[in-house]
Amino acid sequence: MDTKASSPAAGDAPAKTAISGKAIAAILLSIAALTFVFSNVGPATLRFLFLQFTMPAWGWFLAVLIAGVVIGSLFPWFRPRKK
């Protein structure tokens, strides 16, 4: 019987995990979006019907970014279906 093959030796390095292309794209898009958000620091006014709100532009962009992430996770139309 060979018990050596079923258990890793104490000196073996842990298995490496590769980062997928989707993860790299998501990280790069997140960095680009957050750079855009935080580079717009001037005040911006939002008018909706008879309401008016003024706050820094980065706050509006960040709110829209978060809303997009939430909506994207609620409607997984483009995800592969489980078999």
UniProtKB/TrEMBL annotation:
Taxonomic superkingdom: Bacteria
Keyword Transmembrane: yes
Record key words, sorted: Membrane, Transmembrane, Transmembrane helix
Segments traversing the membrane: 23-46, 58-78
Annotated protein name in UniProt: Lipopolysaccharide assembly protein A domain-containing protein
Species whose genome carries this gene: Microbacterium awajiense
